[in-house]
Amino acid sequence: MSEPRYEVIAIGNAIVDVVSSCSDELIEELGMPKGGMTLIDADQAQELYDAMGPAREISGGSAANTLAGLSALGVQCAFVGQVAADQLGSVFAHDIRAVGIDFDTPAREGEPPTARCLIFVTPDGQRTMNTFLGASQFLPATALDEEAIGAASILYLEGYLWDPEEPRAAMRRAIETAKNAGRKVAFTLSDAFVIARYGDDFRALIDDGLIDILFANEVELGAITGEEDFEAGIAALQDKVPTLVVTRSEKGAVALSGGERAAVAAEPVDEVVDTTGAGDLFAAGFLAGYVKGRSLETSLKMGAIAAAEIISHYGARAEEDLAKLMAAKLG
Q1: Per-residue b/e over 282-311, b at no fewer than 16 CB within 10 Å?
Q2: Element (H, E) at 56
Q3: Is the CB of residue 17 less than 8 Å from the CB of residue 276?
Q4: Do 266 and 305 touch, CB atoms closer than 8 A?
Q5: What is the pLDDT of residues 318-327, one digit of tens each?
Q6: pLDDT confidence tier of residue 252, bands split at 50, 70 and 90
Q7: Cα 17 to chain center, whole Å?
Q8: Domains along the chain with CATH numbers
Q9: 3-state class of 227 per DSSP?
Q10: Is the preceding peptide bond at 112 cis, omega within 30 degrees of 0?
Q11: What was the pLDDT predicted at 2?
């Protein structure tokens, strides 16, 4: 097998996050499920944007956020995702390249515009997300750089992108390409609502041995296994995926790999400001440890440190130097 060109190549939604503080009353008034993620159309996106207070625009998207964290930790990364040839598309492309990630997917001409996620953050730090997927839904398999995918140590896939038909076909093709090249496939389940729609697809990928590293939170674990009990959910998956990583919010995280089980506590934070991207950055910390050959426990610890940094401020991109933070925390 040739030396990998990238340590991690990811396929995900190319989204610009629009983040604003709000009251619990506004969440109720707008009829949004607090703490959840809802897919919206262009008209709803405009309506919610009009209802927002002052906002910050930050390039986002789950897999792209993970790559930003990985790049900050010295991991060589590339991203595959679809933007439109518009202002937000240019913003996204500039931002992701500026943090050292290769991004060569050609912009798409015409409608719909680049995707955006309108994020309302309540005083308790909970984020309520409303996502207009726009151009990101139209990532064709022809946009894949199969040579790069076959030459990357890990292909990382975002469950959110499984919903639209074109990207789903592209991801299936990417999995086939990675597996044929003897590379590992990592998959994040993203959200219980995605599992409600495509759980059978995900379970088939797992049962067919196509997922090497699976990321889930406690709710998603229950949704994918049908088990309400945490340990029963772990037991249902531990023999089906070589590496299983489950986050549990303030209860920390658990990972199982090669017959080994490790668990870490959540890192303490002075104040939870915004939970946007916590899972994305946890995956970044864990994968950074994984590709560098760190122990299962240390990789989990790195995930917890990265997640704690991200929830201490607005937005899903690190504000502190993650590499220095890891060095200080891990010694």
Answers
A1: bbbbbbbbbbeebebebbbbbbbbbbbbbb
A2: strand 56-60
A3: yes
A4: no
A5: 888 899 999 9
A6: very high
A7: 13
A8: 6-330 (3.40.1190.20)
A9: coil
A10: yes
A11: 62
Q: Among residues 10, 324, 8, 297, which one has the least CA distance to residue 144?
A: 10
Q: At which residue do the structure tokens 């959840």 appear?
A: 36
Strand 102-103 to strand 56-60: parallel, antiparallel, or no bridges (unpaired)?
unpaired
Helix (H) / strand (E) element for 304: namely: helix 296-311
What does the pLDDT average to over 195-223?
96
CB-CB contact of 276 with 316 (8 Å): yes
Beta strands 102-103 and 77-80: pairing type? parallel
**Do the Cβ atoms of 304 and 264 come closer than 8 Å?**
yes
268: number of Cβ within 10 Å:
7
The proportion of the chain whose per-residue pLDDT surpasses 90, expressed as a percent, equals: 78
Vertex 97, ends 82 and 19: CA angle to 5°? 70
- Tokens representing 26 are 């506004």
Helix (H, G, I), strand (E, B) or coil at 261: strand
d(CA 180, CA 157): 17
Half-sphere exposure of 241 toward its Cβ, with a 13 Å CA cutoff? 30
Instruction: State the burial class of residue 83 (Cβ atoms within 10 Å of its Cβ: 0-12, 13-18, 19+).
Output: buried
Q: CA end-to-end span of the chain, whole Å?
A: 34
> Using 50, 70 and 90 to split pLDDT, how confident is the model at 316?
confident
Residue-level pLDDT at 17: 86
The pTM (predicted TM-score) of the whole model is 0.89
Bridge partners (DSSP) of residue 57 are: 18
Structure tokens at 314: 């607005």
In Å, the largest CA–CA distance within the chain is 57
**Reported confidence tier of residue 1, pLDDT bands at 50, 70, 90:** low
